[in-house]
Amino acid sequence: MTSTVPNAVQHADVQQPPITMFGPDFPYAYDDFLAHPAGLGQIPATEHGTEVAVIGGGLSGIVAAYELMKMGLKPVVYEADQIGGRLRTVGFEGCDPALTAEMGAMRFPPSSTALQHYIDLVGLETRPFPNPLAESTPSTVVDLKGESHYATSVDDLPQVYRDVMNAWNACLEEGADFSDMNQAMRERDIPRIREIWAKLVEKLDNQTFYGFLCESESFKSFRHREIFGQVGFGTGGWDTDFPNSILEILRVVYTEADDHHRGIVGGSQQLPTRLWEREPEKIVHWAYGTSLATLHVNGQPRPAVTRLNRTSGNRITVTDANGDIRTYQAAIFTAQSWMLLSKIACDDSLFPIDHWTAIERTHYMESSKLFVPVDRPFWLDKDEVTGRDVMSMTLTDRMTRGTYLLDEGPDKPAVICLSYTWCDDSLKWLPLSANERMEVMLKSLGEIYPNVDIRKHIIGNPVTVSWENEPYFMGAFKANLPGHYRYQRRLFTHFMQDRLAADKRGIFLAGDDISWTAGWAEGAVQTALNAVWGVMHQLGGTTDPTNPGPGDVYDEIAPVELPED
Q1: Prediction pTM value
Q2: What is the pLDDT of residue 10?
Q3: What is the rounded distance in angstroms from the CA atom of residue 79 to the CA atom of residue 85?
Q4: Where are the beta strands (DSSP E) in 344-413?
Q5: Three-class secondary structure of residue 436 per DSSP
Q6: Helix 178-186 × helix 246-254 angle, to 10°
Q7: If I label 414, which of 127, 186, 423, 559 is the partner at 20 to 30 A Cα–Cα?
Q8: Where residue 2 falls among pLDDT bands split at 50, 70, 90?
Q9: How many Å apart are CA 337 and CA 359, to the nearest integer?
Q10: 422, 361 contact by CB (below 8 A)
Q11: What residues have CB less than 8 Å from 397, skipping those under 6 apart?
């Protein structure tokens, strides 16, 4: 059992095909596209060496730049802070450099198959992430309303938790055709996926997650809804998502995005930084040994973009923080969308007005984390009276909400994520310094584990982040509210620019905000590949007939279009 309240109906004794996060809105096999020996496409030789601006050096920007470089283009990457974006791995001052904390993305499902392509490409290792009741998690404590329950499997929890599990499974079957959709996605049965999803989008676009639960006979009990909100499925409590569109949640459960997570050994930021330095084996135009780093002065991206405007010939002109002005035939914007409304001075003519509306309406989730380094994984010590682990992965309704225990072995220093919270729970931490946060967290955990002195094991200062307070992010990730489907469709499909007026082409949106699966690195990769196809197409390039790209098959699998009137 991989979660406190599993998110899937179990299929006993049936070997299921693997699933991928390729739908249901746009069921395109990005993993097959990447694996094909013909590559992602080619551009005319006359365009080789053409500069393309890539704004934002997070995963989406670096993937896009890497693939453009392989085609023979010259990506010019702009980054306001550091390569990685929300793949941010930090160390602890004065501690072993190998001891790290993941301030952003830290756990990735196997269904992120396009992401896994790049993880494998750069030679990174993954290992199971210790989510609540995951097979690799020694033990879990669920602490609600002052009552704690110790468990190594869901069977160790009181019956009410199994009742909630059954209610969630029934709710998904009754209201969202879960088994049919999950099976169709495993089999990559595109007509069936589209048939099921089209009905659900029309039916549920205006429904909140909480409203979806309330309408289910299975969740008529408020107590069950409360427990579900605090304990949730997969990674823990989901009540902070209750105001969001139920379509957002269904995308997660259909693709098993919250199951079987793995972490990247040594930190997730290694993925974009290794891609930055990587010299592709197959590359067009550029000499063997070329990398993104070698295409940039001193191996560094250009600084923050301060202005974007259109100039003669429908070019995109970029001004950076150094005052340097450069003009491009094409640009890819991968930073968080709100930067276009706040940090960057933009021409209104960059995008159609309905796209500007969609950008402005983007809803972000707040998120905070705090980590401390400790001398060893003391939580594996056994209580002399009970024989249990003295401390466990912890889900609670106290301020900490989720506490994760991360170790490299029994005799090595380790890391505790004392608290990982979202939305209102995250905002409660915002005024507090790292040390103030730590004190509150230690007090809360001391009430759950009164006989454990966590403080005596801490060997360095805490590190913390509140993504809503980060100047180039202002939030952790996008999460659509009810009624936002149309906005998201506009943003995701922006790469299909033949459908836009000629004076609105040339700049392509990509990144986590633009994807249907925001909050998951897979979406950043997928939208990067969409944008690469868009740039290739604009410059007169084509894909190999045996490996059609996302734009080539767009008309067959385009996202459901809801009426505007």
Answers
A1: 0.96
A2: 40
A3: 9
A4: 345-346, 364-365, 367-374, 393-396, 402-406
A5: helix
A6: 50
A7: 423
A8: very low
A9: 6
A10: no
A11: 143, 144, 145, 230
